[in-house]
Specification:
Shape: globular
Number of helices: 8
CATH architecture: Sandwich
Structural class: alpha+beta
Number of domains: 1
Strand content: 25-35%
Oligomer: single chain
Number of strands: 21
């Protein structure tokens, strides 16, 4: 088992040595589709593209006053949490936000501080909510990114709208999409990890639950007892618990800030954690990844990581340390050994 762990670590090192960048590079304009596929999509490497959507009216139009006039009365889905962490591990639960239906103008009131509400509010519904809930805004941008659609030979599966408070944080996860993330106003702060760093990223299996705000304003966690456990990453890359997750010391995250008018290409299967400035507005385009040999190899990598983690879980050393059965974590069980 140790030889497998060593080889997994070497796989990550080789990726960094051979093709991964030490920081996220910038492109100065919209790329040629073929070159973009060759240089970024195929090699599965992120980059930030400037001047790629300067022609969108949204960049100048999407002020609070304009949005109130255009879509203020529209009812949209809003994620509400007590701490800003939606879809994240909290103790031994994977807790999802309370999904609340609100007028867009009411969300702006909260973000602008015109009204005081307990909780953290984030417009983050990811089922093409721009097209489904706010179609009135689609004239202010393009329905797809033409050079990306040409590079991939297809249109995006979803176009999502994001608006939230500074305390709204997206926990570390990965997606099966080629993602173009366009910041309209404010800025987004990303922590990125390549798929080849998967051996250093801990996973656990958690009972799913949702936040619910009671009449007294306090939030409670309500179990979804009829749902299967959810695999998720318990580590916070802003403050990693290296005693609990020592393998994360070997990870090599990239940090980048995407500013208004910039577009991040976030390749499929890259792990990412996201923060934002207060009131940041963004739109992203999800293009479904190709389920080809790249996906095949990643599935193998995941399986090998699971095998080595399972091997560690049953290891009891002479110091009386045992790995917790649900996660790559160490518990002191010397009294029971």
């Amino acid at each position: 088992m140790e030889s497998v762990r060593k080889r997994l670590a070497e796989c990550s090192q080789e990726a960094h040595d051979l093709y991964l960048n030490q920081s996220v590079p910038y492109l100065d304009g919209p790329p040629d589709p073929l070159l973009f596929y060759r240089d970024w999509i195929g090699p599965n490497k992120p980059c930030i593209i400037r001047n790629a959507f300067n022609h969108w009216p949204a960049l100048s139009r999407w002020t609070p006053d304009y949005l109130r006039e255009k879509v203020g009365s529209k009812v949209i889905s809003v994620a509400v949490t007590p701490n800003g962490y939606a879809d994240a591990v909290n103790g031994d639960r994977f807790v999802m936000p309370e999904e609340r239906q609100m007028c867009f103008s009411s969300v702006l009131d909260v973000i602008e501080g015109k009204v005081q509400r307990s909780g953290v509010f984030y417009v983050q519904k990811q089922c093409s909510n721009l097209l489904q809930e706010l179609p009135e805004l689609t004239d202010d941008l393009e329905p797809h990114v033409s050079w990306m659609s040409a590079a991939l030979g297809k249109l995006p599966d979803a176009v999502n709208f994001w608006l939230g408070e500074a305390n709204a944080i997206t926990s570390m996860h990965k997606d099966h999409y080629e993602n173009l993330y366009c910041v309209i106003s404010g800025e987004k702060h990303f922590i990125l990890l390549p798929p080849t760093d998967r051996p250093f990223i801990p996973y656990g299996s958690y009972q799913p639950a949702v936040y619910h705000q009671r009449d007294d304003g306090e939030f409670e966690v309500v179990d979804q007892s009829d749902s299967e456990k959810v695999p998720w990453i318990p580590l916070d890359p802003l403050d990693p618990d290296l005693q609990r997750f020592p393998q994360y010391r070997q990870a090599r995250p990239l940090c980048c800030t995407v500013k208004a008018g910039e577009m991040l290409f976030l390749p499929s299967l890259w792990f990412h954690h996201v923060r934002q400035s207060h009131g940041c507005i963004a739109v992203n385009f999800w293009y479904d990844m190709e389920y080809d040999i790249k996906y095949n190899y990643f599935q193998l990598l995941e399986a090998l990581c699971d095998v080595t983690a399972a091997g560690a879980k049953v290891c009891v050393n002479q110091s009386g340390l045992r790995i917790n059965s649900d996660i790559s974590d160490v518990d002191d069980v010397s009294s029971s050994v």
